[in-house]
Amino acid sequence: MEDVQARIAGFIDKYAPGIAALTRTLLARMEARLPGAVVMVYDNYNALVFGYGAIDKPSRAVLSLAVFRDHVTLCFLQGKGLSDPHGLLKGEGNQVRHIRLAGPETLDDPRVEALLTEAVGRSEPPFDPEGPQRLIVRSVSAKQRPRR
Hints:
This protein is α+β, with helices and mostly antiparallel strands. It has one domain. The protein contains 3 helices and 6 strands; from the N terminus they run ααβββββαβ. It has a 6-stranded mixed beta sheet, covered by helices on one side. The relative contact order is 0.22.
């Protein structure tokens, strides 16, 4: 686990200090919010992505944090079907919706918390809050856009 955490720290260190600090804070908040989650990490061409699911199948992930050069986005991978009476979710694809995170306090917004709760509640299989969180590095792209 320490080796995986060291690799992830290296992925985050590629970013400017402000985005790196925001990412670390958001990861800690998500870890506290989703005990027992499997976190699948992708250091892709466009972004560093942390996918959250109850099991280690990417198709079963329900949330992700996507870290870009200048912002972090919270993605709801089956967001099209979520209740969004306040119109927070952005995107027009077949499934995924997202919210750009201005800061970690965005996760404390009751409207965002309701979306998170609904998304996690729809997970199949359900999350096991008694289980340990697992980190899995799924892929690292050799070619990447600049992170700073």
